[in-house]
Structures are given as C-alpha cells and as structure tokens.
Amino acid sequence: MHIAVLMLALMTMANPVWAEATKPVRLVVLGDSLSAGLGLAAQDAFPQKLQKALQAKGIAVNMTNAGVSGDTSSGGRDRLDWSVPDGTDGVIIELGANDALRGIDPDLARTALTDIVTRLKARRISVMLCGMLAPPNYGAEYAARFNSIYPDLAKKFDVPLYPFFLEGVAADAKLNQADGIHPTAAGVDIIVGNIMPTVEAFIGTIAEQRR
Predict the structure, then answer these.
(1) Average pLDDT for 99-116
(2) Which sign, positive or negative, has the C-alpha torsion 206, 208, 209, 211?
(3) Which residues are CB-neighbours of 181 under 8 A, at least 6 positions away?
(4) Is the Cβ–Cβ distance between 19 and 80 less than 8 Å?
(5) What confidence score (pLDDT) does residue 16 get?
(6) What is the mean pLDDT of residues 103-124?
(7) Active-site residue, 182 included
(8) How would you classify residue 139: left for phi > 0, otherwise alpha for psi between -120 and 50, otherwise beta?
(9) Looking at 35, 89, 126, 182, which residue is catalytic?
(10) Average pLDDT over residues 127-138
(11) Which residue among 33, 35, 74, 126 is the active-site one?
C-alpha cells in the first residue's frame, strides 16, 4: 500500500471527526437553463465548470447539476425534495431569471424562494443565493420589487448572496449565445471566475460546521 494511502487510512480510523472534515462537500446547484447549460456541452455547464475550478484549488466537492431549463422559482420549489437528496451539504440557488423574463408577479417569486430557503434550512442544508435582475422592459417599479427579493432574503435568513449571477456577462454579445440570454462556454468561465470567492467562503462555512 502506498505510504500516503496508509497514512490517510490510519488517520481516518483514529479520528472520525477528521475524516468527516475531509470528505468532499456535497453541493447541488438548483437552477434553470443558466445552470443547466442550455446550448452547451455537458462539461461546459456552470456546475461542472465550477466543480473543476474548485478542484483545481484543492477543494474537494461533489457537484450535482439540478438545473431545469424553463424553470421558475415556483417550479424549483415544486421539485425541491427530489432535486436535493438527503446527505446534501449545501445548495446554490440560481432561480428567478424566468420569473423576470415572463413578468411574473415578484411576490410569487419571493414566496417561492422563501419557501425553498425555509425548507432547506429545516433540513440543515446550507444555502447560497444567486441574485437576478429584472430586464428593463417591465419598468422601474417592477424592477425595484423584483431586484429587492434576493438581498432581502439573504438578510432575513442570514445566507450568503452573490448579487447578480450574470455579472460581467449579461448584454455582452461575445459572451452569449445567439439568443442573447444564455452564456457561451467563455461566458460561463467569466461567471465561475467572478463567483468563486463567494462559493469558496460558502464551502468554508460548511467545512467549519462539520468540525
């Protein structure tokens, strides 16, 4: 047996707490087409690229892509129990883009996202929110009501927030597919790079809670 493998086995047997702390963090990205990777190869979807970037920094994670194209916040809530299996350590919520694009009442999106966070916390699963911004075509009042959802919930539930999922990518033709909405693989790289500090801190908090 390789000496490193033998040492790991001995440390695990001697210290179950240490073993628990070194287990990969099990994350689920609960989202819509932006995380599902619509129009991209599977390996270019956000969860897969995020996992690769984390592993490159020596951070052990098992990432599940629970993105469903076309899903609204209410849709994510309706499938929450089977999308987030028992044993999950943390959930990155990326929902709301379709609510905003369709002009759905922000109160409905707020209620659905509130329910999702409440139910995950009841299961002792850590939560990170990815914010979304309303397009300008529904007017300033709609945008104010919608855009306030994410910071309000982050404050209410004391969970980390990445303010705008598409930061650095939205409205840049070079980083979006022909529809102007969904990022290219290069666009996903930008998102991953921007969101990494928030995700690393999120994973660090989960690791601390294991000790």
Answers:
(1) 98
(2) positive
(3) 101
(4) no
(5) 41
(6) 98
(7) yes
(8) left
(9) 182
(10) 96
(11) 33
